Amino acid sequence: MFFYYMDLGWRSIKKTPYLSLLMVLAISIGIGITITTFNVYQQMNTNPAGERTTQLFAVQLMSQGKDAWPDINEQITYQDAINLRKSTVPTRQVAMFKTGAALQTMDVDFQPRLERIRATDSDFFELFSVPFLYGKPWSKNIDTDAAYQVVISQSLNQDLFKGENSVGRELYLNQKLYQVVGVIAHWKVDPKYYDLNNGPFSDPELIYVPFSLSPIEEFESWGNNQSWKTEDIRNYQEGLMSESHWLQYWVELESEQQVQDYQAWLKAYVKQQQGLGRFERDDARGEIADVQTWLNINKVVPEDNKILVGLSLLFLVVCLVNMLGLLLAKFLKQAPEVGVRRAIGASRLHIFAQYMVEVAILGAAGGVFGLFWAWTALSLLTSRFKLGEALTQLDWSMWLFAPTVAISAALLAGMYPAWRICRTQPSIYLKSQ
Fold first, then answer.
1. Residues near 246 by Cβ (< 8 Å), separated by ≥ 6?
2. Environment class of 60 (CB within 10 Å of its CB; exposed 0-12, middle 13-18, buried 19+)
3. Cα dist. 228→96, 239, 280, 285 in Å?
4. Contact predicate 262/55, CB 8 Å
5. Of the candidates 250, 240, 319, which has an alpha carbon nearest to the alpha carbon of residue 90?
6. Distance between CA 94 and CA 84 in Å, rounded?
7. N or C: which end of the chain has fewer CB within 10 A?
């Protein structure tokens, strides 16, 4: 019976091709706009840490003076990072920042280029579940005793060493020789929660060097630098001991007891620094935030994005109201035919089911076209406004979500017209024949 209704529905659609196309376009545009905004919202609202979201914590310290801003800082100073490393509570902990350097190789044909670098500790790779294609991170002792070792990405390994196992090979950064100890397999987290300073959907760095090299090589920060006071900084070493905030600090705490112990340790640290004349505010404190809390603090999903999703849903409702009117006009025009079918034995339920199947076909077609509009819109956002591909890539779930929403919405819009036509009185049209 269902396939019979599909045949009747398809015949009805072919009888009014322009009206049917108009209804498909109406619902497809509504679905396309809704899917576009919802896809962006979903990508921005994703928690990339998964099950480990309650084990990874960003560390914040309110180290500014009394007359500075009242909010706790999202980054920490270099001297605080060095002091925090002394805690034995976390399972793993990592200080890091974004920098860059001129990249060269032994190949005379290779053109030197400026590359983004992340200066970090060896725990970074395990703490953030970074997969390795070849080799492994530098050893733990290099976090304190600097060595010229480097971990590179798979894409950079392809460019420099044609994808071969490059462990033990060498490259130059700012004309200093580094040895490759590991190659990361393809890895990208969205949002880039471990460093949100230059955009939550920015690409990860291609090169990772030991944080301990920072005071030796005097790596400049390529991220956000903030300071609550004016300081006469004459060289790099003075900058390291300044009150400038430019580092990210993360810890891994695997149990609730560890969380409590680390919070107590931070409280004691703040008190110790106050005794040394720092952390001048009365509300000075240290805080930790798990991944989801960290995303909320940094407003990775702006309020404007939520408003756009709501407006797109309202636009979809407008499209459905227009579709309802068109369906009502079309179905009532077929009243004489329905009257004859009712007279020869078709029940109201049969008539209602037939027209709802026709509406479902229109909805499915609208969903397919809606996906095309959404894909087009996201492609334009990527190319025209230079947004990250992660933000504008059509998520696989949308390929199921869009047709489902389109069919459901169409059925909702078609219920009243189908109900009106199934209540047709056969006698009225039989007498008129």
1. 75, 77, 78, 97, 221, 223, 224, 225, 226
2. buried
3. 21, 14, 12, 16
4. no
5. 250
6. 10
7. C
**Residue 19: what pLDDT?**
84
Which pLDDT belongs to residue 278? 92
- CA-nearest of 380, 372, 358, 357 to 403 is 372
Residue 58 near residue 76, CB atoms below 8 Å: no
Residues 6+ apart with CB under 8 A from 387: 201, 381
pLDDT (tens digit per residue) in 385-395: 555 555 556 67
C-beta of residue 9 within 8 angstroms of C-beta of residue 165: no
Positions of the chain with pLDDT lower than 70, given as ranges: 1-5, 7, 44, 301-305, 335, 338-340, 342-343, 345-346, 381-394, 424-433
pLDDT at 258: 96
Q: Say if CB 330 and CB 16 are below 8 A apart.
A: yes
Largest CA distance in the chain: 101
CA angle 324, 329, 332 (to 5 degrees): 115
Three-class SS of residue 246? coil
Q: pLDDT of 366-413, one tens digit each?
A: 888 888 888 777 777 666 555 555 555 667 777 788 888 888 888 888
- Angle in degrees, CA 379, 385, 389, rounded to 5: 50
Cα→Cα distances 144→75, 95, 140, 210, 253, Å: 21, 12, 8, 9, 22
Q: How far apart are CA 52 and CA 49, in angstroms?
A: 5
* CB-CB contact of 61 with 83 (8 Å): no
Q: In this structure, is the dihedral angle defined by the CA atoms of residues 51, 54, 59 and 61, taken in order, positive or negative?
A: positive
- Return the structure tokens found at 228: 């609550």
